[in-house]
Write a structure and sequence with these properties.
Aspartate Aminotransferase, domain 1, 478 residues, homodimer
Chain lengths: 478, 478
């Protein structure tokens, strides 16, 4: 085949737009989770690529027949697993523009508008979330879009190492056993993965106990570990404060951690991947207590609960020099006047890869099309749905909340053994009516109900809860 | 604003499809490079996000007025800078489907079709490029889509460290000064960045000299350095063989490097980011000489020269256990039966981030819609264009080739001082007619003409070359 002409593209473009509009319209009628065994889809796909080109119709037809039945439908209005991975019409449209433009944002000069829109939009979001002046355009720091919060914490580690070693680590490598990082058992596994990737190793991770019955870091324990490391001659490198942990949406005590970090020169990274975007609501601005005073870096994921398609993690640093100092390398083939003038931002020095998509477009479209008012409405709806679920659980004596309902997340369990709870989860998910996931809290299995989907309305939440109740009844009768 | 309804999405979806079709149709009439100063676009974007939502029309109108004039048009048929960043209609359409579906591929269970299509498509591509059996589905290795070749080389370093240390590095961290990596001055800067990110530091990089007058690694020099490191008690960790260097498309001697690596237990990573995809043509299969016998890992970028929108780097390992052993961490909230059965692939353990888009869709659509025959035609057209340019340069005594024309890349210079060549580049790019970039070869500035754009035809190449000739004439006339 030669290239599709622009008019053929128009034809198939309309068809794909129709396909998506219909998919969203009819999502409710699909089972949320697929019924497939490992290898089912692989076996149905041909073993060899075609020699001659086929029409895009063939792609669409196989999408319907082979692939859709093998998808877990994250955009389904009754999907309540993990955390939401919000998509939205403006984000999808803007991401399509990004694909069509096909520009590269690695350097300012490789598409100036790509860099400058990102700078502006990150500044907008920093304002919207009440993030401090020093993260913003006029300050010494700045914001950038990453793929995920996992990458953000790697960058935080690298910038912290650069600062702590006055640049030596970049040249000489890390010294094993010297640097330590503070987390809790509830901190995202990405921090341990970051320690492994950056060469610190798992041994660099200090797991600070949480306060009894809570899932947030115990400050007294943190102080004790930092003091012990000081005595042992270790360098306390970085502490991760989570605002909204993955399991239970717990919030670490950022102000207390921050004060301790400042005292000891520890880099404070705030991982607000899920919950940070909720601070767009003035009544939830407390989520960022301590960030303005103490955070060296911070991230939150509009691709979770802020209507912006994956991937879009927004990451800010208070001092961009630590980050770019850790990462900047300039080969001849990338040299250009604008970079050498020092007047531009080259985002390749703010991230792990070199190349980058024009991801700012989708975040810009979301902020423009929803406005701050629309974003607040979306966040509040997710929380309201979770409040309903929490009330229903409290009213049903077979169940109990395992943590207080926090933002759009509800953790609960059947008053029964762990295995019964896992069985309940499997039965619920097998119905196709809804989809939940689980965690463990103090060794007890808990189910997680994470509201906040783009298309979720109260009746979807009700249906899902009724499904849980029915499956519990069958299980308990069994 | 509340959400756009599916029908409103349809309306704006058609408009965006039209916008892209028109953009592609009229790209030729736009200057390739923008005429903007640092800050021009930033200043024209409002300082604050809107309180109330706006219509998507406002986004489209600002895109036209504020952003498009600030873009370097990578899809322009007369863009010959850097390397091509191919986009194509099937890839754009499939990426739109990916956005609309909004599923997560981090685990098999988070959308089985997402993982299994990727496995199948990577196997197709491995066959198409003549990559060895052990990289394929039935073998001990496997393939995965990464964002960029930068991430692939980080993964190669981590897997190599895992193998070389029998898993100890993961727990204890790296030992500085122990591990060394072999590259040349022509190897992509991503390898040094990878050494910095993984904690080895810049000191771990051994720059092996290239053969005089060539830009490929000198095997005798490599052998000498490896021996010296052995004597000094260092561990020779990894060698990077580049197939198609960024500056000049030089090809390192993979078979010779491979034999030496095998002898010393060194991990051989083959970085074929730009050139590897050309092996879809049987007459270029030699590009992969030595890969089948010796490569531990390999990557190439369909997002450069194989019609698949950024980001799509395809990465294979010969032994997947080294990679997943280096990276796998399983918190409770991600546990599931399928993963524990060992019967599925969880791609989060094959990459740096946790979350992942359904990127296999766009590569699948490209392979389906072009077929192998269409892909070969595309590769051959890019090479043919470069051959024309090389002939024109040879025929014009004011110019000289600085390396032989290789694949779709031509490096050349005005027979004049470095500064005159930089001036020529600036003048050419200021015309808006075409866009080239530069490099240095043995301290001499060379201009790079990288053909291979999706929409480029011979007359575009001719126009671009005439522009270079005219600007040279003006410059030389003084």
């Amino acid at each position: 085949m030669t290239n599709m002409s622009p008019d053929e593209f128009r034809h198939y473009g309309y068809r794909v737009v129709d396909w998506i509009a219909d998919y969203w319209k009819h999502l409710e009628s699909l089972p949320v989770a697929p019924r497939v065994e490992p290898g089912d889809i692989l076996r149905r796909l041909p073993a060899h690529p075609p020699e001659q080109g086929e029409s895009f119709d063939a792609v669409l037809s196989d999408l319907d027949e082979l692939l859709v039945p093998g998808l877990l439908h994250w955009q389904h209005p009754r999907f309540f697993g993990y955390f939401p991975a919000n998509s939205s019409p403006p984000a999808v449209l803007a991401d399509l523009l990004c694909s069509g433009l096909g520009v590269q944002g690695m350097l300012w000069v490789t598409s100036p508008a790509c860099t400058e829109l990102e700078q502006r939009v990150l500044d907008w979001l920093a304002q919207a979330l009440g993030l401090p002046e020093r993260f913003r355009l006029a300050g010494p720091g700045g914001g950038v879009i990453q793929d995920t919060a996992s990458s953000s914490v790697i960058l935080a580690v690298l910038a912290a190492l650069h600062r702590a070693s006055a640049g030596r680590v970049r040249r000489d490598g890390v010294t094993p056993g010297r640097y330590v990082c503070y987390v809790t058992a509830e901190t995202h596994s990405a921090v341990t993965k970051a320690a492994v990737i950056t060469g610190l190793g798992e041994q660099a991770i200090r797991q600070v106990p949480t306060r009894p019955g809570e899932q947030a870091m115990d400050l007294t324990q943190l102080r004790g570990l930092v003091t012990a490391d000081l005595v042992a001659g270790h360098t306390s490198l970085l502490a991760v404060a989570t605002v909204g942990t993955t399991s239970t949406c717990a919030v670490d005590p950022v102000p207390g951690m921050g004060a301790l970090c400042r005292e000891h020169g520890i880099w404070l990274h705030v991982d607000a991947a899920y919950a940070g975007v909720a601070a767009v609501c003035p009544e939830l601005r407390w989520l960022h207590d301590g960030v303005a005073e103490f955070a060296d870096s911070y991230c939150t994921n509009p691709h979770k609960w802020l209507l912006t398609n994956f991937d879009c993690d927004t990451f800010w640093v208070a001092d961009r020099a630590a980050l770019t100092g850790a990462l900047s390398i300039l080969p001849e083939y990338l040299r250009n006047e604008a970079s050498e003038s020092g007047q531009v931002t080259d985002y390749r020095d703010w991230q792990i890869p070199l190349g980058r998509r024009f991801r700012a477009l989708k975040l810009w479209a979301v902020l423009r099309c929803y406005g701050l008012a629309g974003l607040r409405e979306h966040i509040r709806r997710g929380i309201e749905h979770a409040q309903h679920v929490a009330r229903w659980i409290t009213a049903d004596e077979r169940f109990e909340l395992t943590t207080p309902q926090r933002l759009s997340l509800v953790c609960f369990r059947l008053r029964a053994a762990n295995q019964a709870n896992l069985d309940l989860l499997a039965r619920v998910n097998a119905t196709g009516i809804t989809f939940l996931t689980h965690t463990k809290i103090d060794e007890r299995v808990s189910l997680r109900f994470a509201a906040g989907g783009t298309h979720t309305e109260l009746h979807h939440v009700e249906q899902a809860w009724r499904c849980v109740q029915q499956q519990a009844a069958t299980l308990l009768a069994g």
